[in-house]
Design brief:
By secondary structure, the chain is mainly α. Helices cover about 70% and strands about 0% of the residues. It has a single domain (about 50-295), classed as Orthogonal Bundle (MetI-like fold). It has 13 helices and no strands. The protein is globular and about 75 Å long.
């Protein structure tokens, strides 16, 4: 009788699977088909083979957007791996009122990116608070172009990303720190290890699988960066569009004047392939770290 009811769990899963197919797999399949066509917003849709992918190789805007995205990842990921861990250790102790500080550090996570972007735009503009302070302290002689210089704009967006993600990854690290054996830390203390030595020699090795997980999640988020750049550049992608990310460029190609849906779909598949390869390598690294931790 039990064998005849193998389908019962699938009946419960069917609505969720149908919704996932409609919202996720359907658009993905449609994008994969459009990537091999010359589809445009106002017409087209003829099969053109690998023409879209061949075009990518000579597309200077694509390589610039890819370079910006890689740079974004190289700066943001290390920051979101290390800084939340330090923050988690700061608020991990059982001190009176520590829950209030945890909640305050987590607040940026639940804040709307639109609101956060507008606040930082106001703070970093030429007549904003940051430039006012720098001028008052005579650190600079003229306002810094945080929002009008492509390089400074990109790094300003990185600061926003790191600031907003600190609380989220802090919570992940708090869960990992709760699993660190207290007797190991006590033994290290008895052996004369100070706080810094205990951190690098005991805590970091024990939470390394979590660090890999945080690195993977933050890297995927950085690869999809869009809102920060769009809001803080007022939709322009910086001077001459030099601060565009991959997602920003894909949106521009697909929703621009020409509306090159087919080419934008091909760019999307390239970004998806890169993200999947990176995720697979990260998963392999995480499994290796977990095996080393249990060895």
């Amino acid at each position: 009788m039990t064998g005849r009811r193998w389908y019962v769990p699938w009946l419960f899963l069917a609505p969720a699977l149908a919704l996932a197919a409609l919202v996720m797999w359907g658009p993905l399949a449609n994008t994969a088909v459009l990537a091999f066509t010359d589809a445009r917003a106002l017409g087209g849709g003829q099969f053109n083979g690998l023409d879209n992918f061949a075009r990518i190789g000579s597309d200077a805007d694509f390589w610039q957007a890819l370079g910006n995205t890689v740079t974004y990842m190289l700066v943001v990921v290390p920051g979101l791996v290390l800084l939340p861990l330090l923050l988690a250790m700061l608020v991990y102790g059982k001190l009176p009122g520590i829950g209030v500080f945890r909640a305050l550090f987590y607040t940026p996570v639940v804040a709307s990116m639109v609101v956060v972007g507008l606040i930082f735009t106001w703070v970093l503009r030429s007549d904003g608070i940051v430039n006012a302070v720098l001028l008052k302290l005579q650190v600079v002689t003229e306002p810094l172009p945080f929002l009008t210089d492509s390089t400074l704009l990109l790094f300003s967006c990185m600061i926003v990303t790191i600031w907003k993600g600190l609380g989220y990854y802090m919570v992940i690290y708090l869960a990992a720190l709760a699993n660190v054996p207290g007797d190991v830390l006590e033994a290290a203390t008895v052996d004369g290890a100070g706080p810094v030595r205990r951190f690098w020699s005991v805590t970091v090795p024990l939470v390394r699988p979590t660090m890999v997980l945080v690195g993977t999640l933050s890297a995927i988020s950085a690869a999809k960066i869009f809102a920060e750049i769009y809001i803080m550049s007022d939709g322009s992608g910086g001077p001459g569009g030099e601060a565009k990310s991959m997602v920003f460029y894909i949106r521009e190609v697909g929703l621009g004047v020409d509306g090159e849906i087919g080419y934008a779909s091909a760019l999307s598949l390239v970004l998806l392939a890169g993200t999947l390869i990176f995720s697979a390598l990260s998963l392999k690294l995480r499994r290796r770290n977990e095996e080393g931790a249990h060895a």
